[in-house]
Structures are given as structure tokens and as C-alpha cells.
Amino acid sequence: MDRAHSLPLKKSGKEPNAGAELVLGETTYRTKVCDRTNSPQWEEAFYFLVRDPREEILIVKISSAWDQAMGSLVVPVRELLSEPDLVLDQWLGLDGASPDSQILLRAELKVRHTLALTEL
Question: Where is the C2 domain (predicted)?
Fold first, then answer.
């Protein structure tokens, strides 16, 4: 989770204390909260175990101090399968926010090979 820009202001008109929550399956991570900014820079990495990239989705929720939703994003993991080197690295718009509100997300799918040996 890299950063965001042009996040909406709080209902009071002040800049938000922006944090991001990332959810994939039953695993949830939260970034640090960046105080009083609508262009936070988290620069944090999180790792998820993906069992079936064709079925799982990554949900990113942006909020102010975890109590006021500012926008969200749904990324089907299968989209990474068609990206060069299985890496998505781009600015993405947020649902429920202004058209200018975006996050810079780098998602990388790494394949771990396992070898199963059976007794003959």
C-alpha cells in the first residue's frame, strides 16, 4: 500500500486522519494512520496467502481514523494473472469518493512451487 491523493475532506471540512484497511479472505491488515492529510503516504507492504487467484478478491477500504469511510476498492486477484510479471502497479480510483480520489497500489502475485513426493 503506497499512497493516496485527493482523498475527501471530513464532514467538518478538515483533512482526514487517513488509514487503509486491506482484506483478502479472512486476513486483514491496517496501515498506520497519517494525520491531517488528504494525500497520505503509507509505503507499507503486506503479504497474503492466495489459495485460488481466480476466485479471491482484495478489498481496500480507506477511512479517517477508522471511523469515517472515505472510499473503497475491489481488486479481483485474477486481474494480476494478465499483468506483466504478475504485477499491478498503478493509480486506482476509489468507489464512494470523488473522481479525483485515487490510491497507488502495487500488488504482486508470487507463485510458490511445492513438490509432493509419493512413495512408490
Answer: 1-92
Distances (CA, A) of 108 to 45, 58, 103: 11, 12, 16
In whole angstroms, give the CA distance from residue 15 to residue 17. 7
Q: What confidence score (pLDDT) does residue 114 get? A: 66
Residue 27 lies in a domain: yes
Count of domains in the chain? 1
- pLDDT means per 10 residues in the chain (120 residues)? 94 92 97 96 96 96 93 96 95 94 96 67
Expressed as residue numbers, the domain containing 40 is 3-108
Task: Decide: 36 and 15 in contact? Cβ < 8 Å.
Answer: yes
CA dist., res. 113 & res. 109, Å (int): 13
What CA–CA distances, in Å, run from 70 to 12, 34, 62, 104?
13, 14, 5, 15
> Which residues share a beta bridge with 24?
27, 58
Torsion sign over Cα 93, 100, 2, 9: negative
